Amino acid sequence: MIFDPFYDLHLLNAVKQLNIGGRYITCGYKNQHKQFIEDTDDINTKKIDRVMLTVMINNLSIMGNCIGTSKDLRDEVATYNSEKKLVPIDSIFSSLEGSQFLDRTYNSSSYRFGKVVLSYV
């Protein structure tokens, strides 16, 4: 997990550092005001393609969040639990159960609740 206050400066390099299934959380951007912009800032909107390819290939999550005060952030970091699932999980299949994974993902959606997961490990 990466917490980053300035997605416009760090997003491209940050997603490269995440493991498969990792999360990138940002709460703002450096150049949100004209007086903050500098000539040396490396801003190129065409980089979004590279970011999104990395995100999709590695099943990463990008979350935008207005985190509030410094105390709010300290409190959340102190109570973070990596075992807590952020989304409901319907079922988990191993890589040897690929056909069951595909069937549950695409053919059973009317009575499925939550994500269907394919575990590579």
Summarize the structure.
This protein has helices at 7-17, 48-57, 70-79, 98-106, and strands at residues 2-4, 23-26, 61-64, 89-94, 115-119. It is an alpha/beta fold and 121 residues long.
The average pLDDT score comes to 79
Rough outline: elongated
Low-confidence segments: none
Number of helices: 4
Distance between the termini: 19 Å
Arrangement of strands in the largest sheet: 1-2-3
Q: How would a textbook summarize the main sheet?
A: 3 strands, parallel
Keywords:
18% strand; alpha/beta; 33% helix; two-stranded parallel ribbon; 3-stranded parallel beta sheet
Could you characterize what this model shows?
The protein folds into two domains: 1-80, no CATH class; 85-121, no CATH class. It is built from four helices and five strands, in the order βαβαβαβαβ. The chain has helices spanning 7-17, 48-57, 70-79, 98-106; strands spanning 2-4, 23-26, 61-64, 89-94, 115-119. The strands form two sheets. A three-stranded parallel β-sheet has the order 1-2-3, covered by helices on one side. Helix 1 links the parallel strand 1 (2-4) and strand 2 (23-26). Helix 1 runs parallel beside helix 2. The longest helix has 11 residues, at 7-17.
Furnish the topology, listing elements before pairings.
Layout: E1 2-4, H1 7-17, E2 23-26, H2 48-57, E3 61-64, H3 70-79, E4 89-94, H4 98-106, E5 115-119
